Structures are given as C-alpha cells and as structure tokens.
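pipeline/complex-builder :: batch 7 item 3
reading input block
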Amino acid sequence: MAQIFHYSANNVAKLTIVAAVVLAGVAGFVYTQVARSSYLTGRYVEKQQPVQFSHKHHSGDDGIDCRYCHTAVETSSSAGMPPTQTCMNCHSQIWADSPYLEPVRASYRENKPIEWERVHDLPEYVYFNHSIHIAKGVGCSTCHGQIDNMPAVYQENTLQMEWCLQCHREPEKYIRPKSEIYNIQWNGGDLTAEERLNLKADYRIRNEQMMTSCSTCHR
Amino acid sequence: MQNAEDLKAIQRRLQPPMVEGEHTFATVSDKISDLTLKKKTPFHWFIGFGIAFLVAQTLLFTVVYLVTTGIGIWGNNQPIGWAFDIINFVWWIGIGHAGTLISAILLLLNQKWRTSINRFAEAMTLFAVACAGLFPLLHTGRPWLAYWLFPYPNTMGMWPQFRSPLMWDVFAVSTYATVSALFWYVGLIPDLATLRDRAKNKYFRIVYGLLAMGWRGSARHWHRYEVAYLLLAGLSTPLVLSVHSIVSFDFSVAQLPGWHATIFPPYFVAGAVFAGFAMVLILCIPLRRVYKMQDFITHTHLVYMAKVMLATGLIVVYGYAMEGFFGWYSANEYEYFMIKNRIWEGPYWWFYWLLILCNGMSIQLLWFKRFRESEFWLFVIAVIVSIGMWLERFVIIVTSLHRDFLPSSWAMYRPTVFDWSMFVGTLGFFFTLIYLFVRFVPIISIFEVRTLLPQANVHGHQQEFDENVLEADDAHAKK
C-alpha cells in the first residue's frame, strides 16, 4: 500500500503551527487598526452640505464667535444649529445676490429650514451634553479641532469610547481657563501640571470613579 | 488450600475484570473500529439521528427568531431576570463534569475502569459544554458582540468587570471547553491512526490520516503521548472543581437570599458530578446494548458509576439539608422567609418536593444490590436524577428571584413556548452530535482497552495478586 501522504507533509504540519501563531498575531494587529480606521469611524471625512458654507471663511477669516450661530452651546445639551434668519442677518445685505446663497434665500422665502448633514453623530445610547463640557473648561477645539481651518467640516476625532474616556480619566490634561474656551487657536498655553490640577479643582470636576461611571454617559 | 476455580471466583470478586469475554488485541481493535469503518451504517442509526436532527431544528428556529427579535420572546422578566437560560446553562455545564472527572481525576488515581468509558464521557462533556455555552451567549441579546466579554485592546478603552463572577464564568467555561477538547483529541490520536491504517476508503484514510497527525506508534511517540496526556490530566483536574465553583459564584456572590450561601461551591460541584454520571449512564446503557459493547462496558462499570452517583447524590442531599439549616440558624428573617417560601408557603413548593423526590429519594434505591445491578433500574434512576438536577436549578434560580426584597415587584415566572423550544432544541443538538460521534469516532478507546487485557500484563500485577490471595487464604486456614 502506498503512503497516503508525501514525506513533506511532516514539514507542512510543523509549518502550520508557526503559521497559526503568526496569522493570529497579524489578525489581531489588523483588527486593532481597522477598528480605529476612518473607514469605520468617519474621522477626517469631509461632509458635503446643501449650502457651500465655509467655517474657515466665517470663523477663521471673519472671526465670528462660535456662539453667534451655535447659541445654545452654554445652556443646552445641543450646541444648536442656527435658523436661516441668522444667516440672513448679514446675507440680506452682503452677497445678497450670490448664486451660492440661493438655497439660503429659498429657505428664508419658503420658511423651510436648511437640511444640514450631521457631521458628529453620537450613538443614541450616549447621553452627551455640550453645556456641561463648556462649563467645566473643555474648549470647542479640544473635540472639534481647527474648525477655523475647515472649508467643509469633518470629524476631527474618532468619537470612540476610548477617546471620550481619555479625557474623563485625566481631564486636567485637556481643560483650559474659562477665557479660552472659544479660542480655537488655543495651543494648551504653558500651564504647569500644578496649575492644571488647580484648574480642575476650580472647575470642581469630580473624581475618576464618578467621571468614568457607566451612568455618567449611559443613562 | 483452595482449588483453582475458587481462587478465580475470589479474584473476580475482589478485582473484577474490566474486559469480559475472550479477547485478544486484534479482536478488541476489530470490534471497536468496525463500528466506525463498517461500510453500512445501521438503519437504527438513521432513525435516531433523524429524530435528533429534526429536534435540533427547533433550536435553529428559536435562535434565528431570538436574534432577529430579541430576548423578549423568553418568559423571564423583572424580577425573574434569570430563568430557563441560566437553568439550562448550569444544567448542561453540570452534565459535562462527569467526563472531566472520569478522564482526569480517575486517570490520576489510577482507576482502570475509566478506560472504556472515558472516550464517550469526554465527548459528552464537549457537546454538553457546547449546549451550555449557547444560553449565556444568546442571553446577551446581541451574540455577535459577545467577544466584548474577553479582555482585548478594544476601542471602548475599558476592560471587562473583573470583579464580576459572570466574567469569571467566561474564563472558566472557555478554559474548560478548550482543555476538554484538547484532552479528548490527544487521547484520540492513536485511535485515529488505527482507523487510518484500517480504512479501505481513500477519503477516510486521508481524513483520519490528517487527524492522526502522523502518528506512527514509535516509542518516542508513545513517550511524548504519555507525558502530554498526564499533563493535560493535571490541567483538567483543578478544572473539575473550579468550573462549577465559579458557576456557583454567579449566585453565591450575589446577596439574594437563597443564593448567598457558603455551601454553594462544593454543593454545586457534587451536583455536577452527580448529574454527569446520570447522563453517562443514560448514554452508555443503550449504547453498550445496541452496539454489543457489553464486553468492554461491563456490568462492573455500571455498578461503579451507580456508586459514584449515590455518593455524590448524598452530598447534594446534605447540601439541601444545609440550605434549610442556614435559613433557620442564621436567624435572618429574609433567609428564613426564603426557606419557608421555597419549601411550604410559596407557589413553587411542589417544585421543591419534586426535586427532593427525584434527587433525594430515588437514589436511596441504589443502596440495594437489586436496583444497583439492574440495567433497567439504573437507567430509570439516571433519568429521574437528570430531571431532578434540572429542577434543582429551577428551584434555586426562580424561587429565589420571584420573591425579592421589594414585595411590590413580586411576580410569577412562566416559560414561553420559546423557552421550551430552545431547551428541547439543545437536547436535539446534543444527541445529533452524539450520533455523529458514534458513527465517525471510536466510542471506546481502542488502545487503552487493549492494555486492560491479561495479555498486556503477563508478568505484572496479576502474579503478584495471585500470591497475595494465596497468602491471605493460607493465613485464614491456619486460624
């Protein structure tokens, strides 16, 4: 009776042991990369809007304060999207005939809100509140990045839970003085570690257990 | 001085042979490997497999409906957050325990009688663990996210809650499943090689050949095999105790009266071995008959298993007694209320007494030789014990939960049709796997049974034993 397997099968068998270990390692590494990729998180992907509105122009070049449009950011869970009337405060006077602004004028005429595309879409099971973050010293740019440099807004961060927890675990690394909250250019200043901890104490930010408790964000 | 006949009878009584009939190495191999390699699959196999496979379809249906709809199709809801899902999980996990006990602890204790039952007891363990795992997996509601239970560098920036017994369960059960599978497979390798060498069909030879991983039976192979098998036995031994201890922590670490008891770990482990041996008996009594394996799974085996069942059953009964005692002796009104509610005042009182009847009373018959030595009665008692062990988990889980601390939330539990279809479905799944196992894998370890033959031990203990018996007999005569 002939042999069922060629003698090279022995080496193939030994190779599979090495291959299994290597493959498992590679698969694990690929997983950690893919799970954080912009393909899955939407990070850095520019969203096209119904109006070619540029934050770079309005915020960066013109220096309009964030709160001029996002009026509810200090008092509400949502920062608030401006009504068309806010646009028309200026654009009934300047660029009033621009074809780019026709959708805005149409919205104003017909009393129908512009349907903006949501850029930062948190899952429904997360209880997120803008006002508490503002009140505790988290600046706009900490989460949203250099908005004043974005012609079309994109998501600066992954919005994954590990990203949220980074700050909830060590808020002193990310907070800034009250005067700098809306300063998109703020580069962290040159606060010492002690000053940062003092800031945290002044803001009365709770301890890590409280900040990372399940029900702080999932209610 | 006795004559040779009497000597044989004494010897048989003191050290019953583990292989009956006139067998040689070759007939053992023939008889067991023929089950797998015989060309024709017996007709009764198709009937049994067909029924089991059909019943398994209810599991498939229930799981599909469950996953697409949600676990609301089950009857458990506040305050009875755990019901059939955890009852069945604990029941199946418990059944698996006999396999590990037989393969590991009895091996280390040098109990020769394990040899002819360990293979299918281990298979039973694997299949029972597979059934058990389904329940908590599906209870998560989103089984595709079940990998969240494992600690891995996830994007949530969180580790699982290591202080939770449910987390320990994940490690205990997955370790248990892995080690059991390895132990079973390593023990199979020499037999798979036998099948490879005996198979006539080319594809069988390739498949068994791949699985045998180049086993040639050289002295070096055997040396390594023995070391590996012993190491795995050493690894599995603590698992027998740890797995069900940890399963019992799911309850005893909680503060609910009826769960929060220190006796739980040993009481659960004994219950698991008890249930496991009942299931081994349920499987091996018909199996040895249908496949005419009485020579290898002898009468002595059944009696030994009955004795283990009696011993572990008595430990379990002691556990029931202690639960009642704690309820009274603790002088804690909540504990005492739980005991009263469970045993005579509550709506589920008859479950408790049914449980005592099944697990406490029925096994008392095993004290008597007449019942212990009757295949029929052993089978009946084993089935009753299996039902009793299921009832035990029902009593512990449901009657403790349905009267919790807040009387306004008290409720009754009623299983829905999907609770039942899932449970019955796992039974079908279990027996489907058993049928496949019986058809494609040698159900008894061929090479280990060969070592039980007198031929394997020509100059060994047999002679020593004869001398001891003679000496004892002479001493007796002198008196």
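note: The longest helix of chain A spans residues 9-35.
queue -> next item
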